[in-house]
Amino acid sequence: MEFSEYFYYPFLAGTIFLFAVVIGRFVKWFMGLSKIDKIRVRIGLFYKKTLESIWESIREGLLHHNIFKTNKMLGYMHMSLAFGWFLLIVVGHIETSCYHGSMFFPFQESVFYRYYVTQPTDFAGHTFFNYAMEILLFFVLSGVMLAYFKRFRSKTFGMKRTTRMRYGDRIGLTALWLIFPMRFLCETFTAGVYHNGSPIFNGIGDAFASIGNLEPWLNPLWLTYSVVLGTFFVAMPFTRYMHIPAEINLIFLRNWGVTLKERRATTFTLAEVYSCSRCGICIDACQLNLAGIKNSQSVYVLKNIRNKNLTDEVLFNCL
Ligand code: SF4
Known about the structure:
The chain is mainly alpha-helical. The protein contains 16 helices and no strands. α1 packs parallel to α11, α5 packs antiparallel against α8 and α9 crosses α10.
């Protein structure tokens, strides 16, 4: 089969854009800290607070320990998406390293491994990696299915109300929801043609192949997967999904001792504001709901600060 060698460009462009914007923002936030806070960061960097921050980032950013305490189903949904995706990246990178016998290869090869490696391989552990990557994908897909379900039945997740979304958030959400189903289709269709998966994906691929010829679908599917990844990465810094890197940044800053003790807004305030995931947990807990006030809950105040459109009415509606 002739693969298009440029299909991964949307993914690559999105990744470069995301890193440039996020790193630029983090540098800006650091430069805006007070002199004493900058010293706290420099000193804290080399103390055990950094190790504690790494553990807290895993516990809260990937495993979502606190959301689990609120509602197990909600916790599983967040955990399977975040931790599952993280494992797909890490295990995928190790798999590609083993295949090449080197840690140095084009970054996109680990993301689109099954696109590039269609012929039988015999490197050590390839059977394990085939199974592991497919099971991890099912794990993430279970979270995506729950996320679809939550849109219609939020009460099952212990939430009476969910947050209202902006147009940009909807683009980010749609791209995120498409990423893993697209990956599933890409890998099973490719397995249906080349049998380059485990018996699980090869079997599903064979079932698809019994309906029709899969080969003409491969290039459009892989290109679409690359486009939805790129779209999500471009949308991330401007939507609720900015909380993913911002939350990790905040955990480190807090543990290094950066505070708001001066009682004035610094860029640390921005680091906090951008860390709100808009999970919506604070909405049901807010007593303003009883008064019919639906725009002054923490999540909306933070959103308005982020969008620079906070009004006195929203701010001072709080009891
Ligand atoms: S402020 Fe509300 S929506 Fe934002 S992270 Fe906290 S509980 Fe979730």
